[in-house]
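Hi P.,

Sorry for the delay on this. The queue was packed all week, but I finally got your sequence through. Input first:
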Amino acid sequence: MVIAAATGIRKSVVAAVADLPPASFAFVMATGIISTGASGLGPSWLSLALLAVACAGLAVLGAAFAVRLAAFRPAVVADLRAPERAFGFFTIVAGAGVVGVRLGAAGHPVAAAVLAALAAAAWLLLTYGLPASLLIARQVDSVLGGVDGAWLLWVVGTQSLSVAASALAQRPRAAALAVAAGGLWGIGLVLYLLLVSLILLRWLMVPMTAATLGPPYWILMGATAITVLAGAQILDLARGPAALPLLRATAGFVEGACFTLWAFGTWWMPLLVVLGLWRHVWRRWPLRYDPALWSVVFPLGMYSAATLSFGRVARLGFMVPLSRAMFWVAVASWTAVAAAFLVRARTR
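Then the structure:
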């Protein structure tokens, strides 16, 4: 009986690794950013507990992805060539970046630097490999039907590197990192504008169904939020005593763009709620655990962190209580999704 149970568990683990979704690291992103929010708004014990969970999740998922890459390479290649799945790999970049920044703030600069370096290497491979694959090696005439909110993970991954570079640039003799933070922020901003245009084009050109209108569309708001957070970090660098002239010269543009994106991200939320109600109430799509639900939790947590950070640097007092309220919404969402996951795992 024990042998049979062990064999069953082994088969389940192998199947889970073989079918590991590219966007699995969204769990790490969501947990890490709520830990960051708790460090400034919530109880310290909650921040440390979630940081431990995020680190454990990063380690487990990292090992699972390495095994999948080695043992199930054709499946990984198939994901990379599927427009509706490929951009989920940017959760690896964002997950490592978010946890790295949180570890750096907790007094672990070496771990932060290592994770930032790994995230940068993954970003370089993906940011050139995925567009090249879609342009050169695609097997369909158009990828428009595969465009969804997950494509904005490209923006999220890029801005997570900007945040990591800004955090590391606080150290002496790190001017190059400050320049990199500003450059990555600009790249992420332009990518957001381009990709949102593609998403709106898909909405207008391809019929929308309950199946296609999934949780990843919340990244429309999450991408604006992390861009605002990255911009707030750059503004901190620009106002420091040893700020580079380049950062000082562009500070006004960065601040204005961040406020615009913050307002646009705030505008997105009621629309996304309406679309969710249409999907689950009007179209009666079953509401059950899906790994993509972490793509809802992360934007909520990131909106709270970005609002707090930008509100402080821009001296907008109303943003602090708003950030606190959104933080607890994010905590409640994380708890609900985690509970749904545990229920599903218990019943399988």
